[in-house]
Amino acid sequence: MQYQYETQACELKNEQDKKDLLAKAELQQREKERNYFIIGFALVIVLAGFIFRSYRQKQKANILIAQQKHEVEESRKEILDSIHYAKRIQKAHLPTLSYIEKNLNRLQNKG
């Protein structure tokens, strides 16, 4: 009887050890999964941070480009206005084509 009791106790102990090992392995697996999830979540947060930073930099660059475009358009307008003004002044000081032709014809007729 003592032998049977010891063998049963030994079997029970072996079974309990197996259950403990399985529980320990399952617990380690859950810890690994939790750690992987935490690492993955942290990486997503870091990636989101980079994307947000890039978005903000792009917004600032677009604002700067819009300001520069406005300045270029203003400068272009001023230059064109200056050119048109100079053209009007030249037309005012130069004789017309009909006046030149009339005087050329008159000089050719005399000569």
Oligomer: single chain
Q: Shape, please?
A: rod-shaped
Unreliably modeled segments: none
N to C succession of SSEs: HH
Instruction: Please give the radius of gyration in angstroms.
Output: 47 Å
Q: Separation of termini?
A: 157 Å
Largest sheet: none
The proportion of residues forming helix, as a percent range, comes to: over 70%
Question: What is the arithmetic mean of pLDDT?
Answer: 93
| Structural domains: how many | 1
Count the helices. How many?
Answer: 2
The tally of beta strands, per DSSP, is 0
Strand content: under 5%
By secondary-structure content and strand pairing, the structural class works out as mainly alpha
Task: Considering the chains and any ligands shown, give keywords for the structure.
rod-shaped; 111 residues; single chain
Could you describe the 3D structure shown?
- By secondary structure, the protein is an all-alpha fold.
- It has one domain.
- The protein has helices at 2-93, 97-110.
- The termini are far apart.
- The mean pLDDT is 93.
Secondary structure blueprint with pairings:
Elements: H1 2-93, H2 97-110
In short:
The protein has 111 residues and is mainly α. Helices cover 95% and strands 0% of the residues.
